[in-house]
Design a protein that fits this description.
- The chain is an all-alpha fold and 109 residues long.
- It has one domain.
- The chain is 59% helix and 0% strand.
- The N and C termini lie far apart (72 Å).
Amino acid sequence: MKAVSKMQILFYFVIVIHVIVSFFLIGVVLVQQGRSADLAGAFGGQGSQTAFGPRAAANVLTRLTTWSAVIFMCTSVCLVVLYQRATGTHSVLEGAKPAPISAPAKPGK
């Protein structure tokens, strides 16, 4: 049986965190309402249907969105670095064939 290295454990741990943060980010974005999106906003009122009040809920959701987006980006970069170190690949285009060189077009009339 092949032993699991520390790099693989770290890679799988970051994947799990990345998936959890992805679902959390989707949920937080879907919970947010647009500016004056409730019924009172349709008539120009400043009331809100939230428990925190109109500004406090927006601040909490905005901060949650910001932090989850930052964590999502950090885990994305970590996954790329860990995968690159594990596989040894250095470029996406490493195995690509070079484009054929063609002669320039002849000038028209």
